[in-house]
Every structure is written in structure tokens, then in C-alpha cells.
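task queued by scheduler; priority normal; single chain, no ligands, no partner chains; default sampling; output format set to C-alpha cells
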Amino acid sequence: MSRYTISCHHCGKQATKYSGHVKENLKLGNFSYCSKNCSYKHIKTGKTLTCDNNLCKKSFYRVKNQISDYNFCSRSCAAIINNKIHPKWPPRKCKNHECTRLHNREGSLYCSMVCIRVGRFKYTRKEILGLLKRFSRDSLRAPAKRDVPELSHRAIHMFGSWNTALELARIEAQRSHDHRMYKRARTKAVDGHICDSVSEALIDNWLHKNGIAHERSVKYPNTKHSADWGIGNNIFVEYFGLAKDSPRYDRAIKEKQKICKKNGIRLVEIYPSDLYPKVSLDNKLTVLKQ
């Protein structure tokens, strides 16, 4: 088969082609090219563009009828820019009043999970410290967590621990007689009695303040049990601080009640609800003044 020399329609380079191919192109009205690469380049009608996402700037080719005002190399780049230009949720301030950031989280009032946890509480750091100082000033003692349940969880979350909150409020934490801190602090009452906890010290101080003579750790008749306080010959006062927390502790309470009933001893029972969040010993122990 004979060969013809043709001039490439795209680059103008001379090339040899079989006569049959050249005649077929002339018959169909097609152009002749030196290579497939030139044939492909000639029919390209688009442009090489740069991605409009400033963080990408990647070059890419796009056909003419698909070129618009904004052109992106991928759907992810398009989503990044379009969400900024036409946000579904416009930027708004985080509901946590201690946060100054703006956010556009879909369906959320907070900018992050941290602000969600913090924003559920209504007190700020400054307000918590002020309320702790006020309680200490009014009660003449350091507040316990059970004294202010609406503040304790928030204070621990904000400051890391309850004792840290007290230190920042410049309140001296309740300490034991040898100046070491315990979760259940052995505490000295005003009259010198050593109590097993701050709660027992509150009760002991009430008895002393109201002029009621009392003894600590009085034995129950014919048992190894002992009452927290003994008043006179036939009155025992008990602080059941762990009631309903332990089956064993609850059994001990029932056993003490039976012993007192059997021996004609009057048992005055005090529970945490009588001390926290407000001390209500006046209602509970007024009968002892008679």
C-alpha cells in the first residue's frame, strides 16, 4: 500500500500516512494528524483552570460548556467554599456564656462538646466563688458538697476538685485534728470531742451550743455496738450517715432500734437530710431541751 506525506492539521508537522487513510479522511471531510495526541488536543475545546479553593490551587481541565464563575477540581473543594458562601446554618455565638467563639454546627446551640457540658450549668466561676464565700461567712465554717448540691458538681467540673474551689475562694477546708485531709475527716468539735466526720461535729456543736450535756461513744447494753452520743441515762443520739447505702449498715440500724426498744432507751435518729443542704437540728433535737 502506498504512503502519502501529509501536514498535521494541529501542529503542522510533516508525517507519512497510508494512502487509504488519507483518502478516507478526505472523503469524510476529516482532518489528518501526525499522531493521536495531536488529534486529541485539536478537538479539546475547554481550558486548563486553577481550583478556586485557596487551600488547593490544583490545575485541571474542564470542557467549555462546564466552565462557570467558580470552578473546583473536586466535589470536596466545592463543598468547602460553597458552605462558606452559602452556609446552611449562619454563624452564631455559642450558648455557653463563658465562650466567645462563633459556630455553625447544625442543630446545636454550642460550639463543642466541652461547651455543651459546661453550658448546662447556670453559674460562672466568679459566681461560684462568691456563693461559697457567702455560705462560709453565714455558717462560720467551710461548706461541704452536700451543703450546696446545686454548686458542687459545677465547681468540681470548673476547678478540678472541691478543695481547689475552696482554696480559690480563700476558705480553709475542714481538717482533722492532726491537720491532714481525709474524705471522712476526724474532726474536733467545739467542746473538744473527737467526731468521725464533719457531720457528727455539726451535731456535737449543736448539743454544746444548746447546753445539753452529752457523752461520746456510749455502749449499748450487752452488745458491742456503741451510740454516737449518750444523754442522761436513757437517751441515745445516732447519726446514720450511710443509711440506704449499705445493706449491712441498714441491718445494724434495725438491730440498734430493737436493742433500744427492748431496754426502754429513747433513740433519736439523725439522717443526712437533717443536715444537708440545710441544718434542721432545731426541729429534730428540740425534745432534748425538755
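post-processing summary
- The first strand starts at residue 3 and ends at 7.
- The two ends are 135 Å apart (CA to CA).
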